[in-house]
Fold this sequence. Notes:
- The complex is a heterotrimer of chains A (164), B (806) and C (276).
- Chain A has six helices and five strands, in the order E-E-H-E-E-H-E-H-H-H-H.
- Chain A has 164 residues and is an alpha+beta fold.
- Chain A has two domains: 75 residues, Ubiquitin-like (UB roll) (Roll); 84 residues, DNA polymerase, domain 1.
- In chain A, strands 2-1-5-3-4 form a five-stranded mixed beta sheet, sandwiched between helices.
- In chain A, a hairpin with a 2-residue loop joins strand 3 and strand 4.
- In chain A, helix 3 packs across helix 6.
- With 806 residues, chain B is α+β, with helices and mostly antiparallel strands.
- In chain B, helix 11 packs parallel to helix 19, helix 15 packs parallel to helix 16 and helix 18 packs across helix 19.
- Chain B is globular and about 90 Å long.
- Chain B starts with a helix and ends in a 6-residue tail after the last helix.
- The model of chain B has no long low-confidence stretch (mean pLDDT 96).
- Chain C is an alpha+beta fold.
- Chain C folds into three domains: 46 residues, Uridine Diphospho-n-acetylenolpyruvylglucosamine Reductase, domain 2 (2-Layer Sandwich), CATH 3.30.43.10; 114 residues, 2-Layer Sandwich (Uridine Diphospho-n-acetylenolpyruvylglucosamine Reductase, domain 3), CATH 3.30.465.10; 97 residues, 2-Layer Sandwich (Enolase-like, domain 1), CATH 3.30.390.50.
- Chain C is built from twelve helices and 14 strands.
- Chain C is globular.
- At the B-C interface, helix 5 and helix 20 of B face helix 12 of C.
Amino acid sequence: MSKMHVKLKVNGQEVEGLAEPRTLLIHFLRENLRITGPHIGCETSHCGACTVDMNGKSVKSCTVFVAQANGADVTTVEGLVNADGSLGVIQEMFREHHGLQCGFCTPGMITRAHRLLQENPSPTEEEVRFGMAGNLCRCTGYQNIVKAILASADLLKGQKEAAE
Amino acid sequence: MKDEVTSKDRAAGLKGMGTSRKRVEDVRFTQGKGNYVDDIKLDGMLFGDFVRSPYAHAKVVNIDTSAAMKVPGVLAVLTAKELAPLGLHWMPTLAGDKQMVLADGKVLFQGQEVAFVVATDRYAAADGVEAVEVDYEELPVVVDPFKAMEPDAPVLREDLAGKMEGAHGPRKHHNHIFTWEAGEKDATEKVLSGADVVAEEMVYYHRTHPCPLETCGCVASMDKVTGKLTLYGTFQAPHAIRTVVALISGIAEHNIRVISPDIGGGFGNKVGAYSGYVCSVVASIVTGKPVKWVEDRMDNLMSTAFARDYWMQGKIAATKDGKITGLWCHTTADHGGFDACADPTKFPAGFMNICTGSYDIPTAYLAVDGVYTNKAPGGVAYRCSFRVTEAAYFIERMIEVLAIKLNMDAAELRRINFIRKDQFPYNSALGWEYDSGDYHTAWDKALKAVGYDALRAEQAQRIADFKAGKTRKLMGIGLTHFTEIVGAGPVKNCDILGLGMFDSCEIRIHPTGSAIARLGTISQGQGHATTFAQIIASEIGLPADDITLEEGDTDTAPYGLGTYGSRSTPVAGAATAMAARKIRAKAQMIAAYLLEVHDDDLEWDVDRFVVKGDATRFKTMKELAFAAYNKAIPGLEPGLEAVSYYDPPNMTYPFGAYICVMDIDVDTGEHDVRQFYALDDCGTRINPMIIEGQVHGGCTEGYAIAMGQEIAYDEMGNHKTATLMDFFLPTAWETPTYTTDFTVTPSPHHPIGAKGVGESPNVGSVPCFSNAVHDAFRHFGLVQSHMPHDHWRIWKIAEDLGLHAE
Amino acid sequence: MIPAGFEYHRPADIRSAISILQEHGDAARVIAGGHSLIPMMKLRMTDIGHLVDLQAIGELKGVEVGAEKVTLGAMTTQAELIGNAALGAKIPLLREAALQIADPQVRYVGTVGGNVANGDPGNDMPGLMQCLDATYTLVGPDGTRDVAARDFYEAAYFTARGDEEILTRITIPVPAMKGYAYEKQKRKIGDYATAAAAVLVGGGKASVAMTNLSDTPIWSEAAGAALAKGDVEGCVAAAMGAIAPSEDMRGPIAFKKHVAEVILRRAIAKAQERAK
């Protein structure tokens, strides 16, 4: 099958490459670009381990062909660290509140939480649980993930207020 | 007084045991810098994928690989024919059976590995898989273990024809694997026949699957120049895998390096040896290139190790005032097409004989029959010690069934039968010596915390309201008091493939006072790099932040049996403390030399040796570390390191009291867990934050198992739950919120008194959720209903009890 | 789970898309969000030589909220539908239902057009559109035609859409009925319905549809007529007479029928309450 030329912006960098159209975005990120933060958990769009931010939306990159993503602006968990290399707020809060164990779902969780808090900076616990329901975790029982996201919301609000 | 405060401050700075130290792993994981097996990419690496059987039982008449070999990118297709000359078409299982690596003339379950396609990448491999043509001739299918034992049942394992002596004693039928017994049969039957009350019930713990979010996989890389095989993989027991690979491949063990990188959850699924590992190794040898194999989710749910599937027929005898006098259990265990359970060799039914639970039951008998069926092999301990969750579910259901028979409150029935604190160490009727426990204290604390009496009053009101037509929701109060048996185990009775189940730790102190420790275990999310450093910090007084932990590389780590069955803390944790104590002992001699006193004139104070009676004269551990490399001390070797191989004298017996309050909609079968209280006693607590996280996670797995998760087959042996649409993993939305609590009853034989906790919440929560469902319907006549309690099955309970009638 | 290879097309307008479909016949399929199609392709249950991505076609986008009717471009995502306040005010039933579809990530990419056009009995939008008496606009080589949602579904995955047609817009008359409800029972977020019911009621009118209880969505004219008169029992009886659920992992037929009735009654009660 012939390959096509694809061009994307990933974590702020323009990237391009050759790929079969059927190549799933998750495989293009992981195999071609070696961005291995997003993981493959279920392959049927249920688990959310492959979640990336694409054009401002949380998407499951196991269910997007790279051909569809051609031209898109993609952010992965790697792109959520601060400019100085330190952990971003949500990443730090996941660590602070023990929101991860094996770490496999974590990149998808954090990337999804990032978008959730962009859209709803002051979520209730119920809204966090509903907004995170596209991401499965087998280790934590979610309780500390929810705690970490609520704490992130508080911190991010504080940062925003301080900046204003 | 001032000194005491200083000691405390210094201790706090170490972040040792008892501290909710933040996890060191998380800095990598939160920014996507984990290193899981599918993240590994070696130069020239190929990818292998399986052709799998669409049938549950069939002859393999012909395999035509010619079209597959023409698919662009496909380099090789392995079948049993290619593996047979190497003797690798079958492999030994951990349970003393053997298992086909690739279908050898027939298949025994849907999804069984038939051929292995090796290609340049996973896309080409998948194309190759589709192009392999296999002719099957269907055979009659047996999915019911009771039907499998009927005289005229189809023969599943022709390879065992005439072999009436199995790995665990005589076989009594062509589909029978073993019978395993514990306790006193005659004495128990005598108690049953003379008892005031006997309750009898079949308790089924359905087939399920550990389903870690990361599937199983490996990368095999045979270096033809050095003759060295490196095998990366999702191995919960990397050292044992190295030995197994050596034994079955003929490659010398020193030429094999097994590496478990970061593992995305294991829960027992990653203990066993799978066809993918063998085929990847062979493919790497054949092609001369590294070969990766990573399952997809359907492969994982259909072919790698399942859990449970125990049919437990029980009888429990008691006096009329509720004192239990005897327990009888006969279990039919569905092992699938091959016996690939992962249990210690002498325990083909694991530690099912912990099924007397937390109760002082004087007489008991257990028999387990293992049976072959046309289902996937496995039978692993899914977040529990070997078969302990089955045992806990059995006894906690039998207690409820007995309470119904006696018309007693189930909390009170438990209380009057608990093993008393003064009875420990307690010898159970089925052969275990419980190390320590204080069940009454835990139970009373739990009942008080939830306001048990008020809950029962509320429930009585709810029943009245229901009967009056004011509500369609019932309320269930689920109770569980469980006792786990973990930390396998003493080498005298615990081994896997002849390898004693000790574990190990090696600690090296660097000259500047930091350290590296290596263990025979492997974390899969438990946070070993954080907690084991805390043990060392407390033992030798170096800050946990200055101690690196390494596991999973068999070239560097000391030999150990790995992480499963909550054995890391009880066994490797003990080894860690013992190795640390060896270091401290040597440091004491160095300190004595430097301070010019006798060893006995020194006392240990947090991070230093102090001359007794003179607090101004001391040497800190950091100073002693440097001295070990810097001073020529008569009679002492330079350096400061130690290794400990720890053979535990006994198992540890964590316990807990769990209570669940659930509302149930009788019309739709939906439920709402409105309260879940989990009290765990895991002995000494190393990191409370991590313990709490383990409890949350284990309870959530238990919630899934009890309320919907199952591996289901139809009568043709077709797998019905092979995706995460149908295999229930709850989201944050469905998952309950938990309240955690604890008591501390240290293990008397463990160096730091710790017992292990990772699996307790799975063991305890499943019966707790299930008992809540049963309890909701108890007052309408329900005695026993099988899990999973998904919507339709709960609806069916209500339907059968006539609760939907106008 | 690796899909077979295909040629990828990203036409910029409907005409080009249709000509690709014409050129390749059966071998071509359109893709919108892809969350139904891609899993099928990964399981190699469907053979597609040419994949026609509709994302660049501007004509398929946009939501118009008028006084009498609402028009949804087929490529409107569930998330856009949920986030459109004017739409939510006009036809709150749409938002209520869309929030119960799949999960957040899937709603960002899953489109209304894909949901209604695929013909999957598990999808929520077909029943909903029947309840709302929506009309689908199909554009093909021979021009444009409108098909009522109530006439669109023939069997599971079989619809009135021709192979060379593309569903471009959905037109929904703003319901006169003020009472609405979408009730859905499912095993977990991300699951299809065990049973779901869409109800509109008020001003002497009513409309009732049900999801995943037959191989097509069920809109029962008789059920609506009964409910319009306030005859709840007649409505339920008519709807129950129209469904034909099949057994799956969600449960046996008797259970589904029972739950369907319970869910429908709940939807009716909620809609009637809101109609007040």
